[in-house]
Amino acid sequence: METSDACDLRFGQVGIACVRVRRPDAAALCDELERRVRSAPQLFSRAAVVLDLSHLLDLPDDGTVDALLEAVRSAGMLPVGLAYGTSETEALATRMGLPLIAKFRAAYEPEHGNVAPPATAEPSRPAPAASAPAQVAPAAPPGLGAQHHEGAVRSGQQVYARDRDLIVTGAIANGAEVIADGNIHIYGGLRGRAMAGAQGDEKARIYVSDFRAELVAIAGHYRVFEQIPKDLEGQSVQCWLDGEKLMIARL
Predict the structure, then answer these.
(1) Considering the domain boundaries, does residue 63 fall inside one?
(2) Region Disordered: which residues (predicted)?
(3) What tens-digit pLDDT sequence spans the chain (251 residues)?
(4) Contacts of 157 (CB under 8 A, 6+ apart)
(5) Could you tell me if 64 and 143 lie in one domain?
(6) 41 with 151, same domain?
(7) Which of 49, 50, 140, 215 could staple 163 via S-S, CB 3.0–4.6 A?
(8) Contact in structure between 96 and 65 (CB atoms under 8 Å)
């Protein structure tokens, strides 16, 4: 009698936001995350997040961590693990029945104003969770050129250029996501999300010929747009980091 495998198990590029806890106050954490979800529910509602406790002076006890995890759930996000840290963090994750996540795409920094004029959208710095499997290029050897994607990127799709720039000649729909470890060049309309410097390259830039984005990010610093400022809507723009400020200007 023939049997079939019950499932396939594969690892791939997955978008996970990081909630970096600055103080072990579950009520304050819930209030802050609820505000984020209200500001952009299409990005943050039921987003997968990692809880990062590495910036606390002392690792909280199990009860406090459990309260922090419940605060994340109450705010409408879904905690999926703890950020990798010390051996004590590993032991804590084991007791909590959670995995340790060693690497993720962005960081959460609510106390920093990482937004530059002229846009008016509220700044924040987690990366939203991807809704579909990524189209991942193989690791690039030194000197390999940019990855090209011709045609539209449809809602729910994600295109990721690992270790290189990404050039897109087509429209990026609402709910679609393009990611690159280097720069991103979009020769078309950007209505979805574009994230450059995904592995932390703060010198990466984003160039867009028709700017109508939901979100742009560089090295984890990002901004959400509920409404595009009139002086940027439909314009050719470039995005870059100036220190910890994400700058956007017309070309």
Answers:
(1) yes
(2) 113-155
(3) 455 677 765 554 456 778 889 999 999 999 999 988 887 776 788 888 889 998 898 999 999 999 999 999 999 999 999 988 788 998 999 999 999 886 543 333 333 333 333 333 333 344 444 444 444 444 444 455 899 999 999 988 889 898 999 999 999 998 888 999 999 999 999 999 999 998 889 999 999 999 999 889 898 787 888 778 889 999 999 999 998 889 999 99
(4) 132, 135, 176, 177
(5) no
(6) no
(7) 140
(8) yes
Q: What is the CATH number of the domain that holds 191?
A: 2.160.20.70
DSSP string, 166-179: EEEES-B-TT-EEE
Q: At what angle do helices 62-74 and 87-96 cross, to 10 degrees?
A: 60
pTM beyond 0.70: the answer is no
**Of 80, 101, 122, which residue is a domain's last?**
101
Identify the residue whose tokens are 């590495």: 54
